[in-house]
Amino acid sequence: MKCCGSAGSRHRWAAWVAPAAVLVLMPKCPMCVAAYALAVTGVSMSAAMAGWVRTGLIGASVAALAWLSVGSVRAYWRRRADRATPRDARSPAGGADACPAGRGY
Q1: What single string gives the DSSP state of each residue in 2-30?
Q2: Which of 30, 78, 80, 97 could form a disulfide with 51 if both were Cys (CB 3.0 to 4.6 A apart)?
Q3: What is the pTM of this model?
Q4: Nearest-angstrom CA–CA distance, 95 and 73
Q5: If you compute the radius of gyration of the chain from its CA atoms, what whole number of angstroms results?
Q6: Are the beta carbons of 37 and 50 closer than 8 angstroms?
Q7: How does pLDDT run across 31-61, given as a tens digit for each residue?
Q8: What whole-number distance in Å separates Cα of residue 58 and Cα of residue 90?
Q9: Is residue 27 within 8 Å of 33, Cβ to Cβ?
């Protein structure tokens, strides 16, 4: 039985929340990005570089969310196809030819 709070489900949850949080919390002006970088890391940057960093973070977040979306859709269709396929057709021996001992050869 699978527990609702397993490590895998927490990882999947965090994989969706991290890029979404970056998109939601990303400031509009590059100077704010530069100020946050200075406050967090102690490294200063120009406004032009902060603009590039902002654009890169937005692009990476959108790409991550797109990757997760494609993976979720593929997993959904794979689960749906597995439910539609009879169990005998999924076994390597085809079901009728299966070894009585359950070895599948």
Answers
A1: --TT-HHHHHHHHHHHHHHHHHHH--SSH
A2: 30
A3: 0.64
A4: 29
A5: 24
A6: yes
A7: 999 999 999 999 999 999 999 999 999 999 9
A8: 42
A9: yes
